[in-house]
Write a structure and sequence with these properties.
42% helix, alpha/beta, four-stranded mixed β-sheet, binds guanosine-5'-monophosphate, 210 residues
């Protein structure tokens, strides 16, 4: 009797979107409300913002530490964004897989392309703001960047929309309604967990085929 689908290799859920789209709030709500999901804590050389804590939002490293990890092959992927390093640590991935959880990676478009090239079981979601105006307003209101950094983030944001075609899903994050985007992401994850892959086909073959 087959009551449960056999356990599969953990799913990687890559979520990207221009700075100011509200990714962090959406992902925080998503992971807090679903214990089968783990947030992949990236390493960065960007200074912490006032509401960020080391080991929760990021692992905050200096350049020397980050570059040593690059040289020792410690990253699954890494990029330079706005003059700072950001990267997904292999050790984070390994410990999450051991716990049998699916992993949510909040990474930029270039990191997402690197994950795509790894040939692992993953899905990708691009989060859209309602408009460029709203994106700019959100970025200006949060007051976390200097004027020049903000202009740079806006320029980068505009260039990132060209990568939507490389993602599997694209959803809108409306203003002031995190729950709507979270619900849509949950639906996507549910569907992805039912996907047919080689591991599932092997299990079906062992259970049902002579
Ligand atoms: P922020 O400084 O706003 O926290 O992040 C800047 C950008 O870096 C965002 O687009 C965010 O998704 C991306 N980012 C954060 N961590 C990583 C990472 O580990 N790898 C990559 N490729 N991008 C990251």
């Amino acid at each position: 009797m087959w009551n449960n689908r056999p356990s599969q290799q953990g799913l990687f859920i890559v979520i990207s979107g221009p700075s100011g789209t509200g990714k962090t709030s959406v992902i925080r709500e998503l992971c807090e409300s679903d214990t089968t999901l783990a947030f992949s804590i990236s390493a960065t050389t960007r200074p912490p913002r006032s509401d960020e804590a080391d080991g929760i939002d990021y692992y905050f490293l200096d350049e020397t530490e980050f570059e040593a990890l690059i040289n020792s092959g410690g990253f699954l992927e890494w990029v330079k964004y706005g003059g700072h390093y950001y990267g997904t640590l292999k050790s984070t991935i390994e410990s999450t897989i051991e716990k049998g959880k699916d992993l949510v990676l909040e990474i930029d478009v270039h990191g997402a392309m690197k994950v795509k090239d790894l040939g692992i079981r993953y899905t990708s979601i691009f989060l859209l703001p309602p408009s460029l105006e709203s994106l700019e307003k959100r970025l200006r209101n949060r007051k976390t960047e200097s004027d020049s950094e903000l202009e740079q983030r806006l320029l980068t944001a505009k260039s990132e929309f060209a990568y939507v075609k490389d993602y599997k899903y694209c959803i809108l994050n409306p203003d002031h309604n995190v729950k709507e985007a979270v619900t849509q992401i949950r639906h996507i994850i549910s569907a992805e967990r039912c996907r047919i892959d080689d591991q599932l086909l092997d299990a079906i073959s062992q259970e049902f085929c002579c």
